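worker-3 :: picked 5'-nucleotidase C-terminal domain-containing protein
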Amino acid sequence: MNRTMYKGLLATAIIVALTGCNSSDDNNDTDVSTFNLRIAHINDTHSSFDPTSLDFTAQVNSEDMSIRTSVGGYPRVATALKNARTMATDANKPFLALHGGDAFQGSLYFNVLKGAGNATLLREMNLDAMTIGNHEFDLGDGPLIEFANKVNFPLLAANLDTSADSQMSGVTNIKSYTIKEYGDVKVGIFGLVLEDMKSISSPGDDLVFKGEVVTAQATVDALNEMGVDKVVMVSHIGLDRDIRIAESVNGVDVIVGGHSHTLLGDFTNIGNGMGSSIASYAEMITNPNGTSKTCIVQAGEVAQAVGQADITFENGEVTVCQGNNTLLIDNDFKHKYDGENRELLTEADQSAAEAFVGEQDNIAITEEDVLLRSIIDIDYKPLIEEFEGKVIGQVFDANDPIDTGMLDHVRQPGVKRNGASLPITGSEAGAHVAASMVWKLNQHGYGIDMAITNTGGVRNDIKNDATGNLTAGYIIGSLLYFSNELAIVELKGSDITQLLEDTINYSLTTSSGSFPTFANIEFTFNGKAVAGEQIEDLHVCPNGVAAGGCTDIDPEMTYKISTNAYIAGGKDGYEIFDTKKLSPVIKSGFIDNESMIEYVEALTLAGQKLEELPTGLTFIAPTSFEEKLDNPVFKPEDNQ
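worker-3 :: tokens ->
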């Protein structure tokens, strides 16, 4: 597949920026048999208002040099989209700017501003449409409704039925499709969201999510009946399901995707390999009728890249689709000249590296949009800095002579997450998160016996900053940024035993983040035992494992379990929370990251640091999982 991309200079906006592919000066309004459309697209931007970092390889003085630089952020995305639209206008080419969903979550900006910051910044990007991601529902319907009412582009979700929801049904900016007209040519754009949305997010109970394939075909047919034979689907269902749509539905010409965070394309030229093993950028998939084809694109994650595709239609069907993703970088290049410390490049190497980047079509030095940067810096950063700067305590891990200021996190015992493998005990960080749940709810008289939550909800290690302090900003922005509500579930002891066995096996075979982390219980998981007998010596420890006083769990006794509201609904392998609960789930109104902050502050007030807790787990891996374990163990000195 050709991926030719013109790179141009927009004097007042960017140094080198994403432009277009196979630009044409044809006036498409007068040619009804041939129609050329340009699409620029983003997805899974996750409130990444500021840049992140990128490592890439540049050829400098005929040698490969490893370089780290800043990449992306909303202001750079805004520049790239505006430049792409300008280039399309100059070429008299019809243009669409689309967002594949999941603007919410992912940074401290979202935790502080909810959807309001995204609404303000995305409004300035002149998007034509966006679909709804699963994270748009993380805080329920309210923030999504506010977002929909503030943005200046439609939110598309053809398979979302809002008719039974008294609030959502009145939101006029959430639509099944929209139609753009270019002279006599009409292009239909419809949205597709996850049919299993309720299993991975928190939409309202009265919302209905219909089947993806059936809805896609029905929507295409409806658009065709209206005389629209050029159809773009903007989806948030992931690359695998996008391919399924293309193989199962006739008449979707282009799919602009999201959810799987896939940076489609070939990045071997900068040392970063292929974006996907199952599809290239602008992959053409044949429809079930054997003749028409669907072009699939997706642009990675966290506002690092903008994708751009040129599509040629002949008599209503796609005959050519080509383009690529372009990573949007700064020129703050650094390299480890001494092998240890990153330093700014020498003047000669900087010039050579910039020249190399200028020759590539999938990475571009891009200036930030001045307006968006000023909004972020003036209106938002002071609020963030107020949170980020608040010291709440200190971490001290006496068992770890290497990183005494860090409690390591692993999703699965024995599989390195950041600093250590922790093959026997599991997550040190997760033990404190679970303990904070018990502490918070029992401060308010809930009588919680234990906490069981999922390691996927714990996003990082717990660690001090460069000044030796743990801050509230780190808890909210890095450790527990999903802001899950604490919930209470009642189960019999026998069902808790089954829940633990089920979720551990689900993690080892299906979803790594479903592995449980817990407080006030201890047990051995013996993966070599027969099914139904893998949980051994399960004890309940009313005051925590470290305090002792643990007793055998009573199979017939009712226990109150603290967890997060997400898995309390039976999601991510925790079906027993839903199917075996002895009373309705209680949602406490308390948020996990805020509770964690209060927990750390209480320890600090008592003169204590956040020290390593016994996790309560002894993990014996099943034979089938042993090949996935780190060998040798990473950081063995911290695997106490």
